[in-house]
Amino acid sequence: MSSEPDIHGTSVVLLGDFNPKIFQPSWFGAQGLIRPTEAETAEVKIIHPDVVEFSLEWVQVQVTRERFSADTRQDAFFEVLRDLVLGTFDLLSHTPVRRMGINVQMHFRMPSEDAWHSFGHKIAPKDLWTELLDNPGLANLTMQGGRPDEYDGHIQVQVQPSRQLSPHGIHLAVNDDYMLKGKDSTTGSKGMMEVLQNSWVQSLERSRSIINTLMER
């Protein structure tokens, strides 16, 4: 089975203490984080003291008082996404960031209904469930494991039918979760940005390997 996804997205999600109104397109443009023309033509959904949300052609940004998210579905901009986050919190280095998710999601269109069902049977065998439910099928499976490195956090894998490639699509997502404790979690963003800088390549490679392994089984 081909392991090339029809949709491939990557996001960086940060949990901490944010001032949403800072994160407007005009601010990103003034700081040289995006081009002036991008700042002027950004599609703004909301600007409010509690939430800011806007999108450019290549990235969607949403910020609340506790959560920052930047997401792209264009392969060519994965590294640019990382640099946008690094540049943002280099300027906002006093912003506390306690937790980070480097997230990868892929959607695959299965070649047939039989292949779609077969994948679900392999991921979630139905032997037990046929005794309990009529015509059981995979709706949402989440598996979580510990980190393979020195950081706190976990790696979570989610499998479910794809809403974007209906009727025979599969959506697989990996949340590579990093946590900071103690002083590093309250004094600013520097510690977590170092994690992002040092772990980015390995994180994406690990997530892609997990997804490709599942698709090739």
Provide a quick synopsis of the model.
With 217 residues, this protein is of the alpha+beta class.
How would you describe the overall organization of this protein?
There is one protein chain. The chain is an alpha+beta fold and 217 residues long. The protein has one domain (7-18, 66-216). The protein is 29% helix and 33% strand. The protein contains 5 helices and 9 strands, in the order βααββββαβαβββα. It has helices spanning 25-30, 36-41, 78-91, 113-123, 190-216; strands spanning 7-16, 43-48, 51-55, 60-64, 67-72, 97-109, 141-146, 152-161, 169-179. It has a 9-stranded antiparallel beta sheet. Helix 3 (78-91) packs antiparallel against helix 5. The longest helix is centred in the C-terminal third of the chain and has 27 residues, at 190-216. It is globular, with a radius of gyration of 19 Å. The chain starts with 6 loop residues before the first strand and ends with a helix.
Which features would summarize this protein structure in a list?
alpha+beta
Per-chain topology:
Blueprint (H helix, E strand, L loop, with lengths): L6 E10 L8 H6 L5 H6 L1 E6 L2 E5 L4 E5 L2 E6 L5 H14 L5 E13 L3 H11 L17 E6 L5 E10 L7 E11 L10 H27 L1
Antiparallel strand pairs: 1-5, 1-6, 2-3, 3-4, 4-5, 6-9, 7-8, 8-9
